[in-house]
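README: folding subset

This subset contains proteins for which both the sequence and a predicted structure token string are available. Records are stored as plain text. Below is the entry for D-alanine--D-alanine ligase (310 residues), shown exactly as it appears on disk.
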Amino acid sequence: MFGGDSAEREVSLKSGTTVLNALLRQGVDAIPFDPATRPLTDLLSEKIDRVLIMLHGRGGEDGSMQGALQLLNIPYTGSRVLGSALAMDKIHTKQVWQSLGLPTAKYEIADKRHFEAGKSSAIMDKLGNEVMVKPAREGSSIGMARVTSAKQLDIAVQNAFKYDNQVLLEQYIDGPEFTVSVIQGQALPSIRMSTPHTFYDYAAKYQDDTTEYFCPSGLTDQQEQALALLSTRAFDGISGSGWGRIDVMQNSDGQFYLLEANTVPGMTEKSLVPKAAKVAGLSFDELVMAILATSLDHPVSLDDTPVGEE
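--- output ---
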């Protein structure tokens, strides 16, 4: 299932097409399904056994599709309703992580109903005069901005309000960015990203060839283990299941700070999960079959053939 009508439709179409081709190569009887063009009841008339969700963003990654599939009694891949809904909301994700004592950057919330631009200077002072502005419920860095002044903050917040009524204002962490993929409870090798952009934005992720990816990421064995543990705890903490990705920043003191969780990460040729899986010894097709296996009540081990009898 890919496409949909979210702001991430283009990326979803690319991810879904790539994954569908892998399923067909592996002999899986798979068909494409775009919920933006077909009613979900067609899944029943098509006698679909299970759904591999490659929908990014709202309507596919926020728990609503997961709930609909549960009502239709059709198994699906990845996180269930609660985990999907929490991970899609950056603000609630941070609040859960804070309650668990997991490290995450200082933040403020801008609500469209009563945001006052006159408070921007105070917000900048509180968050360290360099702030990331993020729509609460968008992915792929859509609507995000990095600002260094109150005037820039005002402009960035108003732009972010085009995508969501709530906006996360987060202290900027000056240091390398890492991402850790989690599949069936196991953390894959971390990836460090480096881009000449002001941050790892949409263009850096999907359009430019200037972004560099390092896997192994250059961490010590001890740091790698600590990051893997932090990532699996963070994923479990928001009720994530099946597979997903945790994004992290590291400051100059070596402290890791959780950024956000993704329950349906990108699976294009530029995407991060396939890069980590390759270093872990999984081909793209093996990775796709492992993801498909998360639709089973008892997914098989990554060390076994991913799809078989339940």
